[in-house]
Design brief:
- The protein has eight helices and 15 strands.
- It is α+β, with helices and mostly antiparallel strands.
- The protein has two domains: 124 residues, D-amino Acid Aminotransferase, Chain A, domain 1, CATH 3.30.470; 160 residues, D-amino Acid Aminotransferase, subunit A, domain 2 (D-amino Acid Aminotransferase, Chain A, domain 2), CATH 3.20.10.10.
- The longest helix is centred in the C-terminal third of the chain and has 16 residues.
């Protein structure tokens, strides 16, 4: 069993440099303080980026989300967007990377005077880390598809824990995934507080019935860049789509389903709670949208 983040090991990653607060360091030297707010509390925001044929895909959308998230938690990144992007490109150049890389951009509140919750104990300098690794989604997952299990852990509203904030704190999502793993599934499907289908533990969820794509309203799910792109692709390619509140019963009667994320793009789903979906993988609508998404990625290359 493996989820939508499954990838094959690549020996080139052993020597890939890591960006750490302005320095490019080998993996074994990439260390942060035990008093770092990210380690102590998960106090920070992050982004996942993909390098495709020399282009950082949908970079503006990712940087918008990063800086909006930092603003929401009163975290000063200390670099302008342009300066941060320049540092990312410096890392890629040093590693000689041009295609097939996945980046994790992490910003925490940085080192604190003490290991406690109070942000006023911050020492004034954020921690910025960027990892760049050769990672490609497993090709087998496209025809095998994911098995999903509905978790008892619910997605939360913005006044409790905002799912739309790309926070370092992921414990609730890890709990949901652990339930799915113990049930023999690949990933967890999560409901919103009202019992409607919201998202998976690491990806956004879509299902298809009678040629119409359906997905949650967006009120309780990740603010996914790939999710937004797929919604736009549906409109651009005359694929009917409805955003709303959907029950598990409606998902159980779907013809096909898929999840979306920066790493895997569109990943087909084969079953939900042990119920096999009838369409071949990938289903016809999923196949059409996957092709449209690949074309959209190539359009990013200049």
């Amino acid at each position: 069993m493996a989820g939508s983040q499954d990838f094959a090991a690549d020996p080139r990653n052993a020597t890939a440099l890591i960006y750490l607060n302005g320095d490019l360091v080998p993996r074994e030297a990439a260390r942060v303080s035990i008093f770092d707010a990210g380690f102590v509390l998960g106090d920070g925001v992050w982004e996942g980026l993909r390098l495709h044929k020399g282009a950082l895909l949908f970079l503006d959308a990712h940087m918008d989300r990063l800086y909006e998230g930092a603003r929401t938690i009163d975290l000063d990144i200390g670099l302008t967007r342009q300066a941060l992007v320049a540092e990312i490109r410096r890392l890629l150049a040093a590693n000689g990377m041009e295609d097939g890389a996945h980046l994790r951009l992490m910003v925490t509140r940085g080192e604190k005077a003490a290991a406690n919750q109070d942000p006023r104990n911050w020492l004034g300098k954020p921690t910025i880390v960027v990892t760049a690794e050769y990672k490609s989604p497993s090709p087998e997952i496209v025809t095998r598809g994911l098995s999903l299990f509905t978790s008892t852990i619910r997605c939360t509203p913005s006044d409790m824990f905002d799912m739309r904030l790309n926070s370092h704190s992921r414990l609730n999502l890890i709990q949901a995934l652990l339930q799915a793993i113990k049930a023999g599934a690949d990933e967890a499907l999560m409901l919103d507080p009202n019992g409607f289908v919201s998202s998976c533990n690491a990806t956004n969820f879509f299902f298809v019935r009678d040629g119409r794509v359906m997905t949650s309203s967006g009120a309780y799910c990740f603010n996914g860049v790939t999710r937004a792109n797929v919604i736009r692709l549906c409109h651009d390619h005359a694929v009917p789509i409805t955003l709303g509140d959907f029950t598990l019963a409606e998902v159980y009667s779907a013809d096909e389903a898929f999840v979306t994320g920066t790493f895997g793009g569109l990943t087909p789903v084969r079953s939900v709670d042990g119920r096999e979906l009838p369409a071949a993988r990938p289903g016809p609508v999923t196949h059409k949208l996957r092709a449209a998404y690949e074309a959209l990625k190539d359009a990013q290359v200049r």
